[in-house]
Specification:
alpha+beta; rod-shaped; secreted
Length: 68
């Protein structure tokens, strides 16, 4: 019975540990990064699926095209 209780506690604790990949989420076809804040060398493009900002370096920002 104590082993079952220990197993349940371990599973409960492991369920609250964030994954190691959460810091490296990518966006904008893999060229941007999902972060809480963009650096001064990046621009905000859209929101990622976890409501963080999709930050894209200024050199990769798509050029606006005019509709004719």
């Amino acid at each position: 019975m104590t082993q079952l209780l220990l197993l349940l506690m371990a599973l409960l604790v492991l369920g609250h540990v964030p994954t190691g990949r959460s810091e490296f989420k990518r966006c904008w076809n893999g060229q941007g990064a999902c972060r809480a804040y963009c650096t001064k060398y990046e621009t905000y493009m859209h929101l990622c699926s976890d409501a963080s900002l999709c930050c894209l370096p200024y050199g990769l920002k798509p050029v606006k095209t005019e509709k004719v």
